Amino acid sequence: MSTDTQATGRTDGVAETGANTLSVTDNRTGRTYEIDITDGTVRAMDFRQIKVDDDDFGLMTYDPAFTNTAAARSAITYIDGDAGILEYRGYPIEQLAEQSTFIEVAYLLVHGELPSQKQLDEWMHEITIHTFVHENVKDFIKGFRHDAHPMGMLLGSVGALSTFYPDANQIRDADNRHLQTIRLIAKMPTLAAFAYRHSQGMPYVYPDNDLRYPGNFLNMMYKMTELKYEPDPRLARALDILFILHADHEQNASTSAVRGVGSTQVDPYSAVAAGVAALYGPLHGGANEAVLRMLRRIETKDNIPDFMTGVKNGDERLMGFGHRVYKNYDPRAKIIKAAAEDVFEVAGRNPLIDIATEMERIALEDDYFVSRKLYPNVDFYSGLIYEALGLPVSMFPVLFAIGRTAGWIAQWLELVQDKEQKIARPRQIYTGERRRDYVPLDQRS
Ligand code: ACO
Description:
The protein is mainly alpha-helical. The protein contains 17 helices and five strands.
């Protein structure tokens, strides 16, 4: 490090120079480099100039799981994980969950500003008239086995939409991008509901354009013989809040998958299919499913201490706890906990909430969780609401995907218009064998 610093009066023993650079001394060569710091970040490529000799490839940074690497400049979602703050386009999640609707939030994420009444009406109209899917989509969903996981069906069917809209690969055309944006947000609930009905062996229900987004989804899920399905407004509102809370979460695993695949300039349906695939995993969107399975396994409050001992011994994981970014209470978990009580008023109390609440109480007093800053995340309580809505656990990540589609597409739009982005292509540290001669099969021992 350079010692050429001029103190500026700090009393904590740290000398400030006012320079926005990092001095790096390579002790292999004794050379010192000045690396620019912008937005609290250094560019990994600036390290490539650091070489032992001319033949050296140059220094790389190693960051498995990208725990300290910013891969994008983004103006969509702000998170302060230590303070437990989440904002979409600068608006606090608490205000949006209380006062907005998912459709308006989707507009905000995609366009960057809240809509005027006219803009909102147009946006809502466009989404409403794009909720139908091609009849062939029904046919191939029918082709899945009766016990196929609905998330697998969603993954396959959203990717397949690219074959119905081959012009979606015109990603440089703004009007085209807008159309695919509308289609994705509009059709995701239809695909999700068809997947659910298929798994139940029930006929698929077409969208009802008289209903709002969450009410229409409930219609496609639950309509039976009635001529017109009338969603309970309290359940529709709870669902809308869940969609809002899941709408975006900056560069999480599934969004990074959308961006990574999208960076190849493939169509947005294929990119979003990658997001669905990532969300399927139990450490991501599958966590709410895992929480429910865990709570069922624990069964009664009496079994909680044993389970917690298993967690602390490393034999179990407390699903729905911990987060890569939040080292405080996930603000979404608080909102969901409150929404859960509203749903229970309509649908009846889910007894698992008492086990969940007790586990939270114990965990927040236990040094294992406190010292690791493990708090409930969004999925600790969301599954309880979904279950109260009558959904099987396999549908939980599907619900998550509906909300997250707004964020995926907003992030994809930002990606394809970002001049700094290229095809995503990480480096590796090669640890395998080198330069071995091929051994014919009959000579191998
Ligand atoms: N239960 C028990 N211990 C945990 C948990 C947990 N849920 N989460 C983290 N820890 C422990 C780890 O074992 C580790 O302990 P150690 O330092 O003694 O080795 C420490 O806390 C740090 O955890 P990491 O695994 O390094 O944290 P990371 O940021 O990699 O993982 C993750 C974050 C994947 C969310 C993790 O907390 C987890 O597995 N949680 C349960 C699954 C879950 O709820 N996922 C949903 C996330 S929210 C979402 O996707 C919408």
